[in-house]
Design goal:
Helix content is 52%, strand content 6%. The chain has 31 helices and 7 strands.
């Protein structure tokens, strides 16, 4: 019997998904994503462009949820202030659609979180399957076909067959974004709003009995074969329930393209050193970035961007955004509107900004989970052909084809780094650099995503009570969710009159959730392993690695025996690989789990890995293997702590140091409390000359 279509597999899982199924760290992202998207809505409607959106399409709280979702999607995309994930700008549909249906459906907080989670996971997976193609980021409008369908149908509690038909109908008519309007005019506003309308319309059709093709994604005449140069159908259903795409979210603290965020951070950091200087004292500003940053700069410079340009064009301008952050210390929504956008000193400084491609930053960018790293690993050897069509820069930056895709996104990364150098006429140089933007997935410095989302919402004029409600989202009743939505969005937008909804509309479907809240289902009935201590130990290790390796991955290690840093990273990667193998044995209930460290201690094995991988790849292997280990432990019943593991330990010369049975819980404890802190201390102690 042939395997069921991709949409059937995805719908079967997502239609039954509950927020309680997800780890706490995933649910924490849902809260931050919701609050950050509400901030983007407030910023969007508060901008002159948002006033036009409200005039044309009305309030986000109007009676018609389809029209409300259309308006809200335009407002949240208009300043490029939305968050990103691997893969896609999810929130324009995945958050907005559940939000506008929360009031008419009487959703409580858990059901709202569940709808957002289901939408995220479906939309990101389908987007990832087509990400090696012509559309990524905001141009990938098809993200919102999936997000709108999943967000609405999970909120309504629809059956899996309804999902399949709605998704089949929607993906038969995906949108195709043209760069001409997207880059230069307000037409960009429709790239999310139109697919949202298509997706919601497909839900209505499926509810009424219209059928869609269940195999529309993988069929030779279907979506992936038309929208992906290199289709990755495995991304759609791989790791359902264990590989949480919601964990890959990065959060924007500035409006603008994610390809520019790190450069803006660097410029803001340099503001205190240049704020007293006349613009004439600055000879040049050099922005070094990855191929994503330099490519965007090449694309937009031909458009002659200036103070009268569209907001979309301003969002993509490296010179304007960097100059503004240098002069003001930040980049705010007001900087994309008069009078600030017309300030002549900004454009005088922008004329002195040039962008340079840094191959090391490109290498680091393609090693990260987002925007392409996971897809490239999934493609393996096939990735070289795709990269060849993208140019020499992409080919040179490709990670090794043997690097496997991650099976846990616990420490997902988005390393779109930058370096900004201000050269003064007196010969001095001022410089700042970052391996990733503030708020990017995997960033090891700055506040966590919860604090960043809180600050962003309050900065955009949001009420503190909304922050408190979102922090307690899973415990909110339907009336409290209604209050949250009213407080966050009730003063935004213009247009059609609206009324306050209460309860469920008469047209609600018979298979929808009923009552104030769905009866709680048993979740995680068995006590599972608490990985908190181990995760904190790895966090400390990763901070040490980031501080010592540098923004582009540090010195290359491949091809030789490497320095002490390379050997330390190789040993760590090999050790965690062995521990992950043992963790899988324990999870599977093997009668006699084994841990033999000889492969991690063997100098020949360490040299072989160093010869095959440069330092950036070694660091990525450490993160990836650690995530796999912790992910396996998080799925392991706590009672398995006492399982005896047959341990054999040897030194670098192959001499046996220990052989015997050790409880698995004790092995993990030693890793968290002794070994990882020791490795972090050693990395911090390495001198540049030996590393």
């Amino acid at each position: 019997m042939s395997e069921s279509p991709l949409l059937a597999q995805l719908a079967s899982w997502a239609s039954e998904l509950d927020a309680g199924d997800a780890p706490d760290r995933v649910v924490a992202h849902l809260r931050s994503q919701l609050l950050s998207q509400l901030a983007a809505a407030r910023a969007g409607y508060g901008h002159p462009l948002g006033a036009k959106i409200g005039q044309a399409y009305g309030s986000p709280l109007q009676d018609d949820p389809e029209r409300a979702a259309h308006s809200l999607a335009m407002a949240t995309i208009c300043l490029d202030f939305d968050d990103t994930a691997y893969a896609g700008h999810l929130s324009h549909s995945c958050v907005n659609v559940p939000l506008v249906y929360a009031r008419p459906l009487g959703l409580d907080g858990r059901r709202l979180a569940t709808a957002i989670l289901a939408a995220n996971e479906c939309a990101a997976r389908i987007t990832a399957a087509a990400t090696l193609g012509p559309f990524r980021g905001q141009t990938a409008g098809h993200t919102h076909l999936a997000g709108a369908v999943a967000g609405r149908l999970r909120a309504e509690g629809a059956r899996a067959d309804t999902w399949v038909n709605a998704l089949g109908l929607a993906f038969t008519t995906p949108t195709w974004t043209l760069p001409r309007g997207f880059l230069t005019t307000d037409a960009k506003l429709y790239t999310a709003a139109v697919p949202v309308r298509i997706g919601l319309g497909a839900c209505d059709g499926a509810r009424a009995g219209l059928s869609g093709p269940a195999d529309v994604l993988e069929h030779p005449q279907g979506f992936l074969h038309r929208f992906a140069a290199l289709p990755l159908p495995e991304e759609v259903v791989g790791g359902l329930g264990t590989l949480w795409y919601t964990q890959t979210l990065s959060y924007k603290v500035h409006p603008g393209s994610a390809y520019l965020s790190a450069a803006i951070d660097c410029a803001a950091q340099l503001h205190s050193e240049v704020r007293e200087l006349p613009v004439d004292d600055i000879a040049e500003v050099v922005v070094e970035g990855s191929l994503f940053t330099s490519g965007l700069d090449r694309l937009t410079r031909s458009e002659s961007i200036g103070p009268r340009s569209s907001v979309a064009a301003l969002n993509f301008s490296v010179p304007y955004n960097v100059a503004t952050a240098l002069l003001t210390g930040s980049l705010e929504p007001a900087d994309l509107a008069p009078p600030d956008v017309a300030r002549p000193e900004r454009w005088a400084l922008a004329a002195k900004v040039r962008t340079v491609h840094d191959p090391a930053l490109s290498r680091a960018a393609l090693l990260g989970t987002a925007p392409l790293g996971q897809a490239l690993r999934r493609a393996g050897r096939r990735a070289a052909g795709w990269a060849g069509s993208a140019g020499r820069e992409a080919v040179d930056a490709l990670p090794p084809d043997w690097l496997a895709p991650a099976d846990d996104f616990r420490w997902a990364t988005k390393d779109l780094g930058a370096r900004v150098t201000v050269r003064l006429r007196d010969g001095r140089e001022l410089r700042a650099e970052r391996r990733a933007a503030v708020g990017a997935a995997g960033s090891t410095d700055g506040p966590g995503h919860e604090e960043l989302a809180r600050r962003k919402f309050l900065r955009c004029g949001g009420k503190p009570e909304v922050v408190e409600l979102v922090e307690n989202l899973a415990e909110l009743g339907s009336s409290e969710v209604q209050r949250l939505v009213e407080l966050a969005l009730g003063d935004l937008g213009e247009g059609v009159p609206r009324r306050v909804h209460s309860g469920r509309p008469a047209s609600a479907s018979p298979d929808a959730w009923t009552g104030e809240s769905e009866p709680s289902r048993l979740r995680k009935s068995e006590a599972m392993w608490d990985t908190t201590g181990l995760e904190l130990a790895y966090d400390g290790l990763f901070r040490a690695m980031a501080s010592r390796i540098g923004i582009g991955g540090g010195a290359a290690a491949g091809g030789g025996t490497g320095g002490e840093m390379d050997r330390e990273l190789a040993h760590l990667a090999l050790g965690d690989r062995l521990l992950a193998d043992t963790a899988r044995q324990v999870l599977d209930g093997a009668a006699a789990p084994v841990l033999d460290n000889s492969a991690a201690a063997d100098p020949v094995a360490i040299d072989a890995l160093i010869a095959a991988a440069d330092r950036a790849v070694l660091a990525e292997l450490v993160r990836r293997n650690a995530a796999e280990l912790v992910g396996l432990l998080a799925r392991t019943p706590d009672r398995r702590r006492s399982a005896d593991v047959r341990v054999r330990l040897v030194n670098g010369a192959g001499e046996e140091l220990f052989s015997g049975a050790v409880p698995w819980g004790e092995i993990v404890r030693m890793r968290a409390e002794e070994q990882l802190p020791g490795h972090a201390a050693r990395i911090n102690s390495l001198d540049e000359g030996t590393s």
